[in-house]
Write a structure and sequence with these properties.
The structure is a single chain. By secondary structure, the chain is of the alpha+beta class. It has one domain. Helix content is 31%, strand content 31%. It contains five helices and nine strands, in the order αββαββαββββαβα. The longest helix has 25 residues. It starts with a helix and ends in a 10-residue tail after the last helix.
Length: 220
């Protein structure tokens, strides 16, 4: 199968999956359950020497994203002010009915001009010793490289693959009458000659502190 036919097949599968997702969610939206949770804005902006500054999303972006709650925050390490910042982006959708599903960075980053030069699924180890899959991208634009980690999170489940995330969304909507869920993304500029593993290690000095807190904001 050539690349064009493969792309057409994947597009067709994605379109069918999105349509099925929309139909099932719409059918179950009347009895939808909205669990209690803590607002994203209360996520600590001071974490173990890191200081975060919030960024606002413009109205055009908010219109594209749809009804949800969003946190965009740049953290800097006070003890290492020359180190690159780490950007944290969390999107939470109380409901993912038709038109309101999570936008994947796999599509949004290229749309913003970033070109992926490597992509893989890795496993992050949480402070409690458990691990979960995440997407790791190295992206470039105008000679700058950045490392990106992201995953989908809902109902105590972390998922890297967006199609599996949609499958669980439909399944949980049927079983639990819930279609809420979130996306967690970390980004940081990569130093000259820095490897993805080294950039990830530097990034996770912050990330390891807030991962245990996420269940408060993206309910299990």
């Amino acid at each position: 199968m050539n690349r064009t036919n493969k792309s057409s097949l994947l597009f067709g599968i994605a379109a069918i999956l999105m349509l099925a997702t929309a139909l099932v969610l719409q059918a179950h939206s009347r009895n939808e359950y909205f669990p209690p949770r803590t607002l994203l804005a209360s996520l600590p902006s001071q974490i173990d020497g890191w200081t975060g500054t919030d960024d606002a999303l413009d109205q055009q972006t908010l219109n594209i994203l749809g009804p949800g709650e969003f946190l965009v925050r740049d953290y800097v390490n006070a003890s290492k002010p020359d180190d690159p910042w780490v950007n944290l982006y969390i999107a939470y959708f109380p409901s993912q009915k038709t038109g309101d599903t999570i936008h994947s960075p796999n599509h949004c980053l290229p749309g913003a001009g970033w070109v992926p030069i490597s992509r893989e699924i890795i496993h992050l180890t949480a402070p409690d010793g458990s691990s979960f899959p995440v997407n790791r991208y190295v992206i470039t634009k105008l000679g700058e490289r950045q490392l990106v980690l992201y995953w989908f999170q809902a109902h105590g489940r972390e998922v890297a693959n967006e199609y599996w995330a949609k499958y669980y969304l439909v399944s949980d909507s049927i079983r639990m009458n819930r279609s809420d869920g979130g996306l967690v993304r970390l980004m940081t500029p990569m130093l000259h000659g820095e490897s993805p593993a080294a950039a990830q290690s530097r990034m996770m000095k912050l990330g390891s502190h807030f991962i245990p807190l996420l269940d408060n904001y993206i309910p299990r």
